[in-house]
Design brief:
The protein contains 11 helices and 10 strands. With about 325 residues, it is α/β, with parallel strands linked by helices. The strands form 3 sheets. The chain has a 5-stranded parallel β-sheet with strand order 6-5-7-8-10. A 3-stranded parallel β-sheet has the order 1-2-4, with no helix packed on it. A two-stranded antiparallel sheet has the order 3-9. Strand 5, helix 6 and strand 6 form a beta-alpha-beta unit. Helix 1 packs parallel to helix 4 and helix 3 crosses helix 11. The chain is globular, with a radius of gyration of 21 Å.
């Protein structure tokens, strides 16, 4: 079971998220629109390296370098209402308020694994193929951008691979059935439907998982939620090549530079554990690269700049700006 401190830490994270949005909702919409251009002008004051990095991200998220027309059925900003998820709605509306209420747009919430027919705002898309119509935004942040301070140095961690999660998907079930009793692994299916199975385990907090040198990231319906906090830690991320990508730009990650690449069937998992246990300096080098990669997503000011630039490009390409 998760400890009281772990639950409290996550609850504070959620409280901070919803409190921040509640405070912003008190500001009039006119304030957001009047400040949009001044915020974007800050980008012009950045040095060339910073500006290039932000523009590179904008072009990664929004590849609509072509004009397109939205159907009359596309909702206008003033018509945007919460449907099911508060988290998706709050992340989206906090950006939409910077633009005129009569602008139209398309959006799709949830774990999106297919490319829509028209340019659409969403959280996730396939890495492979033509995904230009999938315009990424930083959605469901409260779930996907949760971090815990890792105070344990790599050398002091346990020489095992750890993973906890619900194995709804076939690829997760295949992994857990094959490795649940492996001597180098502490892995398990936490879902109640797995109770009574030899691979069922109790949930483990992020802090508890960070006692291990190697943390596995396994994609679920789309991306793996744990990838961000693993790469921000002093543990080494093990992962197959990502098939989906989000605001975190999983498709841009470099194997064996940002994370340790393992085969889709995990047949080389034991070999990789043995190698990095024998070569701790290489493990720390990959961890350092991962830590540096995560930093770009922790600057809230620049995250807002990029988000607004992505949306502005969308409205320009659809002929509305």
């Amino acid at each position: 079971m998760l400890s009281v401190s772990s639950r409290s830490h996550k609850n504070l994270h959620k409280l901070s998220f919803y409190s921040r949005h509640a405070a912003r909702s008190l500001l009039p919409t006119a304030w957001f629109r009047s400040h949009r251009d001044s915020l974007l002008r800050h980008v012009e004051r950045l040095d060339d390296v910073e500006k290039l990095a932000l523009c590179h991200r904008v072009d990664f998220y929004n590849q609509c370098s072509f004009p397109f027309a939205l159907p009359d059925a596309a909702p206008r900003i003033r018509e945007f209402k919460r449907e099911k998820s508060w988290a998706y709605y709050l992340d989206m509306v906090s950006l939409l308020r910077f633009f005129p209420e009569d602008f139209r747009f398309l959006y799709q919430f949830g774990d999106v694994t297919e490319v829509p027919e028209l340019p659409t705002f969403l959280k996730s898309r396939p890495v492979a193929g033509d995904n230009r119509n999938s315009v990424l935004l930083k959605l469901n942040q409260v779930r996907h951008y949760y971090f815990v301070r890792d105070r344990i140095p790599f050398d002091a961690k346990l020489n095992k691979v750890v993973w906890r999660g619900a194995c709804h998907q076939p690829h997760r079930r295949r992994f857990i059935e094959a490795f649940h009793n492996h001597s180098l692994c502490d892995v398990g299916d936490v879902h109640r439907k797995a109770e009574g199975k030899p691979w069922h385990r109790e949930p483990m907090s992020v802090s508890e998982q960070l006692r291990y040198k190697y943390v596995l990231s396994i994609e679920g319906n789309d991306v793996a939620t744990n990838l961000k906090w693993i790469m921000a830690s002093n543990s080494l991320c093990f992962m197959t090549k990502p098939k989906y990508e989000t605001w975190f730009m999983e498709g841009a990650l470099v194997p064996d530079y940002h994370y340790v690449l393992v085969k889709d069937d995990y047949s080389d998992l034991e070999e990789k554990v043995s190698y990095y246990t024998s070569h701790p300096d290489e493990a720390k080098w990959v961890i350092h690269n991962a830590n540096q990669y995560v930093l770009q997503f922790l600057d809230s000011r620049k995250e807002l700049f990029v988000s607004l630039m992505v949306m502005k490009k969308y409205f320009e390409s659809s002929g509305q700006c």
